[in-house]
Predict the structure.
Amino acid sequence: MVLVVVGWLAGCATGERGAPGVEGPPRAEVFVLRPTPILPGQSSGFAVPGGPWEGQPVQGFSGLTLDLDGGLLGITDNGFGALVNSGDFYPRVYRLALRDGALRAEPFFRFAGAPGPLTGADVDPESLVRAPDGTFWVGEEFGPSLLHVDRGGVVLAQYRVPEEDGGWLRSPDAPELAGLLRTMLTLRRTTGTGIVSPAEAMLTRDVVEQLHRAGFRVVPWTVNEPSRMRELVGLGVDGLISDRPDLALALDAGVEVQGHRGARGLRPESTLPAFEAALSLGTPTLEFDLSLIADGGVVIWHDPRLEAPKCTGPGDAGLELATATLDQVQAFACDGLLAARFPAQRREVGPVTAAFVVAGHAPGAWAPLTLRTLLDFLEFWGALHPAATPPRLNVETKGHHPGDVLQLRRHLLATLTGTPWQARATLQSFDFESLGRGPVPTVALLEGTASAVTANVGRSSGFENLGLSADGGTLYAMLEKPLDASRELRAYGFDLGTQAFTGVAFRFPLDPRAVAVGDVTMVSATTGLALERDDSEGKADGYKRLIAFELPPVRGGVVTRHEVADLLHLTLRDGGAFSFPFWTIEGLTRLPDGRLAIVADNNFPFGRARHPDSGVPDETELLLLELR
């Protein structure tokens, strides 16, 4: 619903409610967008209760501004309230029309970057200003940052607020802190990948929790120290890839254990004895790599070459897999021990391997394997151990040259499709080109470390507020919530001429009952208006106020503030009482005729201010306020 207040604002900066310049309760006119429209397009809300929807909901608006012709524009935020659940939502700007109590919204543009349309996992637009040159400025919360956007929605530039430590203001959803989650959300949208296998050093509790909230399974590599295994289990990971599956299994932690290259901490890697050692331990999943050879075949090996100290063969120079035939590859024995790295590694051949070789299924116990040979060995093992559960296979496409991973993917799928192993396999890769929708689930391998910095702005506390100075030269980007115990919101100045932040322009002290400010707009060179609120929803005794403030005489000083209207106690034009009890009242602008437009973000589909007991989502309401 939209509430508009009409009237002149003289005296608002200095008058208390009912003081000279504001004569009695403001008059309100209400406009409702009912029902919530669903735009045709990509389905959305797959990670949202009640979803998905066959299209894009036109949810409540988080900011308002005037178009160059005086028309009203509204902006939606990132979608469903969080980075983790909004990767399938496209934030947009809408043209708004008000007539006979109805609010209508016509799509104007959606946001786009260099790769294409931006989703609610990329940006969280919360405030909107149209600059005198016709371009747009958007305050967003993930950075937090300012976005400069052209008339078609293409992001021209992004600006972060520099801090004294050499970094920036950063929320937990800033790119440097949530890059892993963003990568996975993009991959899921494009390839369907639902499992992430990051380097174990990349994981913190917050990272694991966010990935889980987004619906991903988390299986880090490669973890060999029991103390670190216990730490990762404590963080909530779903599995562990380890060279020492014996140590991981001994934890009895209830997570999936994958034997890395069989069990390379116990036997030379990727060999029949390594896989037999893993199977003998009861390792549920075997992890291994596929590499191409010259004749179009595929062997199970990690490195681009067979060479000492891992392998020995004809001559001393080793063998490049890409130029070798299968006969040349299998002339090597890869039984070298890496004692310094794996002191428990032994050159031992198990009974099943010995029987398999004697039966003529493999050229030798230590010869590099083909995928078909390994599958034959697993079936041979299963016949000898009928009570054992067959292992799962986590197969990495190891691309040593351009195009390798796609050939390896085709080979793997051709070999597994239609066999019992298809339902027991996953395909993983560092090269996302080989990940894609198909008969086998995919896993994204990622390498890196945890961020060395931490958030210094709370989640959902960024640039909810954006105002343009009367001369059109300065933006005031104000944080939604305080950074510290002072309960003062910082508003940063941004010079549109130099396109640079100029430091803290002013500070806004919160009322003791308030927790945030939802939007600001400037009405003169020194006077502004702010929407101040608590976190209540649907309550008559909550705190939802329109506040006038006067800029301080000194840059960085504290504004003086005065209440103009209580949005929970308004009067309609017909004299009836009206309340605007939404949790997040987030859009405010002044119309050319002097009225104020105020809009609520209904947090679709979660808002229940109007229907607290029915489970029916709130509609979008907009007010026009007339200050008499």
